[in-house]
Design goal:
single chain; 196 residues; mainly beta; 8-stranded antiparallel beta barrel; 2 helices; 11 strands; elongated
């Protein structure tokens, strides 16, 4: 009986060790969140957010299938390389950064597909609106150990949202009816994670 109990306890320990939760932190120095949107129907304006944070939790070590993800962006850190445009984007015409200073992705779950591809589904909050969103995600070149002994992994996530769905209602138009700023916005997030 004692032998059986010892075996069960050992099996329980091994099973829990094999599926131990591992936490990863976003390295802000090597992570960027960018967007791209059509301007006047003839070109594109792009920008980024310079202040962000996030965390990832895997339930099976370095296997990112079913990883849990949370992300937060400081709207006031928007940077399109034109100060006047940045201020306009912070206004109520767009993000209303004074009232809604953060954008976030919550309840994110990463599901593995084929050849290093994943799908990330979660809840994206912009201004006072939260909606489900789906990112297409690529894992970049596997998992590495850096020269300082830290374990790192990189991902690129992309999606397109309709800004009107998030109460970003600015809608000036040309006489032809073309929007000054298109409704569809492409989002690209390049993330480097460090194993805690």
């Amino acid at each position: 009986m004692k032998t059986i109990l010892t075996f069960v306890a050992t099996l329980f320990f091994i099973t829990n060790a094999a599926f131990a939760q591992v936490k990863w932190s976003v390295d802000p120095a090597h992570t960027n969140a960018r967007f791209e949107v059509s301007h006047l129907g003839i070109s594109f304006v792009d920008g980024s957010f310079n202040t962000l944070s996030g965390a990832v939790e895997t339930t099976d070590g370095s296997n990112f299938n079913q990883a849990k993800i949370a992300f937060e962006i400081d709207v006031n850190s928007i940077d399109t390389r034109v100060d006047a445009r940045d201020e306009h984007l912070k206004s109520d015409d767009f993000f209303n950064a004074a009232q809604f200073p953060k954008m976030s992705l919550t309840n994110g779950v990463l599901t593995k597909g084929k050849k290093g591809k994943f799908v990330l589904k979660g809840d994206l909050t912009i201004r006072d609106v939260t909606k489900p969103v789906e990112f297409q995600v690529t894992q970049n070149n596997g998992i590495i150990t850096d020269p300082w002994g830290k374990t790192r992994v990189g991902f690129t996530a992309t999606t397109t949202i309709n800004r009107m769905d998030y109460n970003i209602k600015y809608n000036d138009k040309l006489p032809s009816g073309v929007q000054a700023v298109a409704s569809d916005v492409k989002i690209i997030v390049n993330t480097e994670l460090v194993k805690n």
